[in-house]
Amino acid sequence: MRLSARFRALLLVPMALLFCLPLTLAQDAQVLMPEQSEAKAKQLLQQTIQAMGGDAYLNVRDMTCTGRISQFGHSGEMDGFEHFQDYVEPPDMSRTENLPQRNIIEVYNKDMGWTLDRGGVAEAPTADLIRFEEGVKKDIGNILRHRIHEPDMIFRYAGIDIVDLHEVDWVELTDSEDRTLRIAIDRSSHLPLRRDVEQRNETTRVTTKEFDLYSNYHPINGIQSPFQIERSRNGTKIYQVFFDSCQYNTGLPASLFTKESLDDRWQKIGKGERTKERKHEKKEEKAEASASQ
Fold first, then answer.
1. Cα–Cα distance between 286 and 280 in angstroms, integer?
2. Which pTM was predicted?
3. Where do the H-state alpha helices sit in 27-139?
């Protein structure tokens, strides 16, 4: 009976709505007074927090996840999969390592960051730090746990829609930097299925539109975790992430998010990396010599 009801509902929706997202299906968001719209948006966000795990979700101290990421080029071609392990202390401490070598590592600790690669340890480029800080502001976990309590945040209920064949309610938030954050909440499970961000660059005046899709939720220690995330920007798919496992509140050491931890790792692998680099350079030199003969 549930499937029949859903299919009957979908038959009332033009087929274009199933493929062109997001499109508003209801007008009720337009007839609500601002105070009512704000109250409804906040109510939906609280339902989402409870669906994600309630206090267990709000009180996450750290998480460790392993998975695969595929990145896409400008023409939409996939560049292959890379395995990784993520260590996170919400909202703004992160460490990502490639697997299995663990010889390419990125660490961010609030407004600082460092990288380890085959050349050793270095400060993270300013552009990467800016991207990380922007990512923290847009992160749905940070939004639900912290940012909804910001005094200047504006809330609005934005109506009903269809996202990935699920009926959803849209909630819209606008922060003090005029960043518009929209969250599509499944009307049945109350889980977030999509997060949109729209922001205009103050220098170039160009508006960037980005969205994440969340799917394949798994309950872990009472916390609902999406094991698949897809990101697109200005109509182009950027990456897909497939998580294999996640753990919460394992007590990650603070030293994991420091430059010293990367220095220690380089001490262990640096000699081998330099040897491989010299072999690679010699191989290129031989290839160049053969080509010139």
1. 10
2. 0.82
3. 28-31, 34-52, 55-58, 126-138
CB count in 10 Å sphere of residue 229: 19
Place of tokens 């990467």: 128
Q: What is the DSSP letter of 196?
A: E
Token duo for residue 10: 């979908």
Distances (CA, A) of 6 to 1, 109, 113, 160: 9, 46, 48, 15
Distance CA 44, CA 10 (A): 23
Tens of pLDDT, residues 188-245: 999 999 999 998 877 788 888 999 999 999 999 999 999 999 999 998 999 999 999 9
Distances in Å between the Cα of 263 and the Cα atoms of 125, 232, 269, 273, 277 are: 17, 35, 10, 14, 19
Distance of CA 264 to CAs 68, 104, 119, 259, 267, Å? Answer: 26, 14, 14, 9, 5
List, for residues 255-270, the tens digit of each pLDDT value: 999 999 999 999 999 8
Q: Count the neighbouring beta carbons within 10 Å of the beta carbon of residue 87.
A: 19
